[in-house]
Design goal:
The protein is α/β, with parallel strands linked by helices. It contains eleven helices and 15 strands. It is globular, with a radius of gyration of 19 Å. The two termini are about 15 Å apart.
Length: about 300
């Protein structure tokens, strides 16, 4: 039996964002086709410890991820991803931090490619923590950017993000903002990656046509988006059971009557529909709390690259 252990550097060198987006897209399609056994994740200590698992039935492969979450550090998450394949003894253990950042970014790339207008090129990112670089990379992969605005409560983090991404964004106008509503006023795509417990902006601050990705709030007590944005947009989610258990903004909107469950479309269903959803006001929202099929998709890529080929 051989255990392959992958560091953050190994993962980053092995997987491009374009590969991650393609893999996660296939994962969501397989999720819609009931290819996965995927329990709702186990949440301990009010979200400070998380356990996620997925079994891909047709390939007889499985992934288990364990995380510790501490917002007093950056990156906030630390843990492991373990990949197994039925019938073989070798398995793979990977640093969960970069896997989670890649799969979250990739999901945003999939949703943005589906929902944002083809010519969209102006992105505003709210929240410049560890998840933010892959949010930008994913959007840039599917909608090449002309302008990036970054806003964070800590202007030093915003500047660090700009400095980190500048070599990858040649020719893109890079700005740091301090006023949230001004930062989103002319955006064509908005990515929210914060730990907010109340909406970050009013719906009226957004353009009439905009795509919003919300990835930060993953507990019922957290909330990035206002009810009136959700009630006037096409809302696409990662997976219904996970969203109803964990998404503060969706739970709040359902409880207030701003949304009904029938207003929510899972991303896998949207990808396999002959006609992708269209927003009544030209606004679309992708809300994700993260599901294990995404982690499985990245782990599958890593297994294909690092585990020895067998004849079985």
């Amino acid at each position: 039996m051989k255990t392959i252990t992958l560091s953050a550097e190994d993962i980053r060198e092995a997987v491009t964002m374009a590969e991650a987006i393609d893999a996660v897209r296939r994962g969501f399609i397989d999720l819609a086709r009931n290819e996965f056994e995927m329990p709702t994740r186990t949440v301990l200590r009010d979200g400070q410890f998380l356990v996620m698992s997925a079994h891909h039935q047709s390939s007889a492969t499985a992934m288990i991820k364990t995380l510790g979450v501490n917002f007093d550090r950056d990156p906030a998450i630390a843990g492991t991803v373990v990949w197994s394949e039925l019938g073989r003894l070798d398995h793979l253990v990977a640093d969960a931090g970069p896997v989670t950042m890649l799969r979250t970014g990739a999901a945003v790339g999939v949703a943005t490619d589906l929902l944002a207008v083809p010519e969209a090129s102006r992105l505003t990112v709210i929240g410049a923590g560890a998840q933010a670089p892959d949010q930008v990379r994913a959007v840039h992969s599917v909608r090449p950017l002309s302008r990036l605005i970054v806003l964070d409560a800590d202007s030093r983090r915003a500047q660090k993000l700009i400095t980190t991404l500048a070599p990858e964004l040649a020719g893109v106008e890079l700005q740091i903002a301090t006023d949230t509503e001004a930062a989103v006023r002319e955006a064509e795509i908005v990515c929210c990656a914060t730990t907010a417990t109340s909406p970050l902006f009013r719906a009226s601050a957004l353009p009439a046509e905009v795509h919003v990705n919300a990835i930060g709030a993953f507990r019922p007590t957290m909330r990035e988006l206002p009810d009136d944005l959700l009630s006037t947009s096409t809302v696409v989610i990662d997976q219904l059971d996970a969203i109803l258990a964990e998404s503060g903004e969706i739970i709040h909107a359902l409880d207030s009557g701003a949304l009904a469950k029938d207003d929510l479309t899972e991303l896998g269903a949207a990808l396999t529909s002959p006609r992708p959803p269209a927003g009544p006001g030209g606004r679309t929202v992708f809300k994700t709390v993260g599901v294990a099929a995404q982690d499985w998709a990245i782990a599958q890529l890593l297994a294909a690259k690092f585990l020895p080929v067998t004849s079985s």
